[in-house]
Write a structure and sequence with these properties.
heterodimer, A: mainly alpha, globular, B: eight-stranded mixed β-sheet, 21 strands, 22% helix, 38% strand
């Protein structure tokens, strides 16, 4: 593990320049450039707000802001977009870079770092935009915002762990990529982002309680919307589970690395 | 000479587990027998010394690329080890990882980073890379707008910006314009003088014999020969001519050279000699002397078409002249078993002083790849000496008439 980290450290410039190039390449030749990183999730938020704010707005007790539902929505979306970006990128990480891995030797461990780095940058932009919109509608952040880096860390650990496991398996069994598009849609809807958990019938609540993303999203909503300290007990469990998953991901990655190029 | 590369008992197998879940199980320490193992490389051992140039030859599928990938560590060996003392750069990956939406300069940064160099090192080398590529203002344009030649120029410049301990060169180098190719070879030669070892993969015997001290012939994943490039290239030529029920024989001559004979032996060269116009057999020939090459062929089976070809090669094995009776329109048809054919080729030995060899081929058409009755390397060795002409150098005798006018 330590030689892995040492290699990554030696290639830190490569990682940072790859992240930069990745963002640059993604928006090269588009007029609005990096703005698209923010516009896409915000457009989704706008749609849900318009369609659902009347129905859902009333279900948020204790919040007086008339845009409360939009704020709720954006808090959850911020977490979900980081999660989905890290997982989808890790899922195809090795398949997409197959050609490079076949031709050039470089520490493969840099790949997940590049994926996470570029996801973090775009998520940071989204966070800035989100906070700006909050300010415009009169919702000022509180000191609880200081919890956010920790939440991001837990979320990244969970997403990367899951993404690595899936990404490694996807090299050998390509069906994983297809299955995950469906799973992701389902997962989005069993996570209370668009709706509040309070509106759910009893049986369904159990499903949600088993969803690690629920705790992360809820913590995001606590911090960003309610301005209070997130519920630390479930969050700690999620963090522990995420680290185990991350360990498993890196273990599989290490074991699979020698064979990966054989099948790419 | 300390070794920069040591390859020991190297082997690579592609494994098929039947079900991928069995493969996953092996990662967690379970012992699962693969359903099928396909060895593409096995028992490969050799070492490369500092400053040595080695050619790797072999037919398609012989395992050349797999060997290179194992050496550059993009593939992991299934058995054996590869020990590299120093840095490897490979020109086979030219332009890999270039992004069309970045400028040449940005791509250089990225590619050099991929090779593991720090930002400071890259910045220091940047002016040199830009100068070597010679693409002017295009260096700061998007790679999208580059021609393939320009991309190759930038790629080669980055790949060789830092002198490696081992440089791997493959056919990729044959792209690009002649001017830049020369520039590339010049740089490769300079590296070599400074102690870089070369590994060259090519089908071009000229390149192998001209650049390498040693060649390795791979066949079906194993080392068939490892030694002098001239000998190995002969064996390689014999190998590609090898067909079913054909034999291949490698003999050591008294001169210490190795002779390769291969083919179905349905017709064989019984004797070969050079004679003067007076009919005397000779071994030392004067520049420009008229001589006869006499080849007696024994036919051992009924053959529909018989063609004799011969090739004069210089000391380094480079072809000097070659032709055959197919090209001269003298094909013998329906030759019977037991026939004996006496060929005489008369020509003037307009070669420069030095030692030469003649290889012969008995075939049915213009190539030894269809019916190869016999292919015989170093069938005859002779020496050309300059007794009668003014001093000159080179392998050809091209007598000039020089005119001079002193203009005042």
């Amino acid at each position: 593990m330590s030689d892995l980290l040492r290699a990554v450290w030696r290639y830190r410039h490569f990682i940072s320049s790859s992240v930069r190039n990745d963002l640059k390449a993604r928006f090269a030749r588009s007029r609005l450039g990096a703005a698209w990183m923010i516009l896409q999730p915000l457009a989704q938020v706008a749609i849900y707000s318009v369609v659902l704010s009347r129905v859902m707005g009333a279900k948020l007790p204790g919040i007086t802001n008339e845009y409360a539902y939009s704020i709720y929505l954006m808090s959850g979306m911020l977490a979900w977009s980081l999660f989905s970006e890290v997982v989808t990128r890790s899922l195809t990480l090795f398949v997409d870079n197959g050609n490079l891995m076949k031709k050039i030797f470089f520490p493969r461990a840099t790949l997940p770092f590049i994926a996470v780095g570029s996801a973090l940058v775009s998520n940071l932009l989204l966070l800035v935009a989100t906070l700006a919109i909050f300010a415009i509608v009169g919702h000022m952040p509180t000191l609880a915002l200081a919890w956010l880096p920790l939440l991001v860390a837990v979320l990244v650990a969970f997403s990367l762990g899951l993404g690595l496991v899936l990404g490694v398996v996807n090299v050998f069994v390509r069906d994983v990529g297809q299955v995950m598009t469906v799973v992701f849609q389902l997962w989005f809807w069993v996570t209370p982002i668009v709706y509040m958990p309070s509106i759910l019938p009893g049986g369904f609540a159990k499903v949600i309680a088993a969803n690690p993303m629920y705790y992360v999203v809820k913590a995001y909503q606590d911090v960003l919307l309610n301005g209070r300290t997130p519920d630390l007990v479930p969050l700690t469990w999620t963090a522990v589970g995420s680290l185990v998953l991350l360990g498993l991901g890196f273990l599989m990655f290490r074991r699979a690395a020698p064979e990966m190029v054989d099948v790419l | 000479m300390p070794n920069v590369l040591e390859v020991n008992g190297l082997g690579k197998a592609f494994r098929d587990y039947g079900s991928e879940f069995k493969r996953f199980a092996t990662w967690f320490g379970m012992k699962v027998k693969p359903r099928d193992e396909h060895w593409v490389l096995r028992d490969i051992s050799f070492a490369v010394g500092r400053g040595e140039a080695i050619g790797i030859v072999g037919q398609n599928g012989a395992g050349k690329s797999t060997l290179l990938k194992l050496i550059t560590r993009t593939l992991m060996p299934s058995e054996g080890t590869v020990a590299v003392h120093g840095r490897i750069a490979a020109i086979l990956e030219l332009g890999m990882g270039f992004s069309a939406d970045l400028t040449g300069r940005q791509n250089v940064h990225h590619a050099a980073g991929l090779m593991g160099f720090s930002r400071e090192q890259i910045d220091t080398a940047m002016p040199e890379i830009e100068a070597f590529a010679e693409i002017g203002d295009y260096f700061d344009e998007h790679v999208r707008t580059y021609s393939s030649g320009m991309q190759m120029r930038v790629a080669f410049s980055v790949a060789t910006a830092f002198r490696p301990d081992i440089l791997i060169v493959d056919e990729a180098l044959s792209v690009g314009d002649a001017y830049f190719q020369h520039k590339c070879f010049k740089r490769i030669k300079e590296f070599r003088e400074q102690g870089t070892s070369l590994m060259i993969v090519s089908h071009d015997s000229g390149a192998i014999q001209g650049l390498c001290d040693r060649a390795i012939l791979l066949n079906q994943g194993r080392v068939l020969q490892d030694g002098d490039p001239v000998v190995v290239m002969d064996a390689y030529n014999a190998l590609i001519a090898e067909r079913e029920n054909s034999t291949m024989k490698v003999e050591r001559l008294e001169t210490g050279q190795t002779q390769t004979i291969s083919g179905s032996l349905e017709a064989v060269v019984d004797s070969i000699a050079l004679h003067g116009t007076d009919g005397e057999a000779i071994e030392f020939i004067d520049v420009g002397q008229d001589i006869e090459l006499r080849v007696d062929v024994d036919v051992r089976a009924d053959i529909p078409r018989l063609v004799l070809g011969y090739m004069i090669k210089d000391r380094l094995g480079q072809a000097v002249f070659g032709t055959n009776t197919h090209h001269t329109g003298q094909v013998l048809e329906n030759v019977r078993s037991g026939d004996r054919v006496a060929y005489v080729a008369r020509f003037r030995m307009d070669l420069g002083p030095g030692t030469y060899s003649i290889s012969t081929a008995l075939v049915s058409s213009d190539t030894h790849l269809v019916d190869n009755y016999e292919w015989r390397d170093l069938a005859l060795i002779f020496t050309v000496a300059n007794h009668s002409k003014s001093h000159f150098v080179g392998t050809a005798w091209i007598p000039p008439k020089i005119e001079m006018n002193v203009l005042t």
